[in-house]
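Hello again, I could really use a second opinion on something today. My current little project is about how a certain protein chain folds up. You're getting the sequence in one-letter code plus the fold written as tokens. Here's the protein in full, and shout if anything looks odd to you:
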Amino acid sequence: MVRIALLCIVVAHASALGRKKRAGPSVKVAAVLAVDKKAISKADALFKKRTAQSCDAAAKIYEDELKRTGYADAELLLKAADAVNTAMRIRTNSNTITIDGTVETPANKAVWKKDGQRAYDLAAKGLKAASKIDARALGIRFDAFMFSCSHKSLVKQALTGTGTAYKKMGEELQSKHPRHDGDVGSAVLACFYHVAPWPVGSPKKAIQNARKAVQRGGATLRNLYYVAVISYGQKDYATAAEFFKRAIKASPGSPSEADFADFMKSEAKRGLAKAQEKML
């Protein structure tokens, strides 16, 4: 009887331990909230208007949704970064080059200081969360990086690690996605080599990359304008005049080009007049 009693106690104790083991520690499982499709549709519509104000409004909606859902949606992160980039591009003429140098004015630097890092953080998180990194994602990250650095002057940082990173990102776009956004990789490298000081700056590489963008990405407004500006800077006024004329008649090759098309057209007309003066 004692053996039977002891056996019953052991079995009962083992059973209790088994129940505890199966139950295990309590685990908090974070609920994955679904993105509000209606809100995103509204933001998408605002973004398509492509004004600085509409892009600001779109970015706010995207970021509100990211905050609500835990910053886990790669596409939403990239959309938010793209909207912030586009607003900066419109307000600051994409930090493009001119016959006088760059557009790194105090007003533009204030815009880049305010929103550049914000855009880059969103883009970096988007690439990290993405299952596949495509040309669009790399382009968004590149623009965000460029704007995030511009408030301290990219020209002044060309010889630093920032300049090296900028060049590396441009080369990645150039090699992997030569047709994306009119070969934007070659276009941005052309600008980099044009404005960077020695020993990084290279007139030869600047014009080579500018012409490569035209060859691979098409005779778009931006690509023609860059050949013209760089030729002017190298005192090749005949080529500058030719390409300024072509740029004036050309159309933007992408929405991002269209964001600062009016500025490039205006600068092309000014550059043409200046180039013709130089040839007299």
Q: What stands out?
A: The CA atoms of residues 82 and 140 lie 6 Å apart.
